[in-house]
Amino acid sequence: MPCSVSDSSFLVVGAQQRPIQRQRLAPLKSPVLIQITKVEPAINCLYFLLLDPLKKKFDAWTAIVRAVAVPVVPPPADSLPSPAESAEYRNQLSKTYGFRQIGEPLPDNVTLKDIIGTLPKKVFEIDDMKAWKSVLISVTSYVLGLVMISKFPWFLLPLAWAWTGTAITGFFVIGHDCAHKSFSKNKLVEDIVGTLAFLPLIYPYEPWRFKHDQHHAKTNMLSEDTAWHPVWREEFDSSPILQKAIIFGYGPFRPWMSIAHWLMWHFDTKKFRPNEVKRVKISLACVCAFMAVGWPLIVYQTGFMGWIKFWLMPWLGYHFWMSTFTMVHHTAPHIPFKHSDEWNAARAQLNGTVHCDYPRWIETLCHDINVHIPHHISSRIPSYNLRAAHQSLRDNWGKYLNEATWNWRLMKTILTVCHVYNKEQNYIPFDEIAPEESYPITFLKKVMPDNA
What we know:
- The protein is mainly alpha-helical.
- It has a domain at about 110-400.
- It is about 55% helix and about 5% strand.
- The chain is built from 19 helices and 4 strands.
- It has helices spanning about 30-35, 40-70, 85-95, 110-115, 130-150, 155-180, 185-200, 205-215, 235, 240-250, 260-265, 275-330, 345-350, 360-365, 375, 385-395, 410-415, 430-435, 440-445, and strands at about 355, 400-405, 420, 425-430.
- The strands form 2 sheets. Strands 1-2 form a two-stranded parallel ribbon. Strands 3-4 form a two-stranded antiparallel sheet.
- Helix 5 packs antiparallel against helix 6, helix 6 runs antiparallel to helix 7 and helix 6 packs across helix 12 (about 275-330).
- It is globular and about 60 Å long.
């Protein structure tokens, strides 16, 4: 509360003291002043010339005292922006993590329905011509890749494998659209195309579809999301052998860890509900048939080395993109995983998903799957409409979006920081918990470029 010189706020009251009472002073009636007022006007004028400056100095001094005496009341703590809400703080994080933009937190009162309501209706429309055009692009690029593998000299084979692995990633995206009912209006067509698209990848279509639906329903929810998930501290500390396997798996081998995910989640019928098992078994039979017929034919025509050249190496290229894409989509130090009682669907899908730009040839062969935020707002948006949907999200919700262009710093951050779950920090790196065992992580920190 403000105070003035005449207030008792200046009087210090000790523990055993009584407040000093303010006293009224009687008007000053000095004989000298009475005499001064009766002297000649010249002397009276001289008096005021001397007194006025002293009075002004006294008034200025009291004003200073008042200013110092007024206590400064800080703004309420809840009115100050939190670090996550500070634009300057988010900009610094963006540079540190390799992002173009880190979005500000979505308000609690915004729902997923609110966000979907801002999207144009046309982005949900299925266009058969565009859908089959994507099939043509994938088949053509895959055939071209096989020709490159057969014709290129040995030292150019890595380029051919990279192209072919990226091309068959497009097969996965087509099957992905079929699973989300965004490829065709005919469900039978979607089931057939989805199953066929997944066969060269040895991916059982129906088991993947069931588990992927769970990923969309519970994105970034602890213990429930079926995609990338932080390591539990209890699991990390449970066994020295398991600890080493986890460090390598979430470190240098992470770009191929989708292979482990493929094996763990899609071939065990016990992981599915009773009403799903029949369709799961049909998909598993299709995959086994492809392996039983397709692999021997490849070996018969090209030999075992031909199987490695024409199938295994492109398949490993596909899993590189499968792991990398899904990592980047939902993994960053600032993106939290939440328990079910704290989880918010709108924040998980809009704030918890990352849009990442890759070189144009990758985006074309992979049918824009990395324009990923609108896909999590509504999985019914076909892949060929994702860019229009993302532009709408930018126009209406742009300040909440996480956006990046693929770069080494982004990958380095994920591989060396995003490891063990922590409620306060989101992630704790392995080398902070077990520095001696985390030499693969320290190695990555030294050798990986830091270019953003």
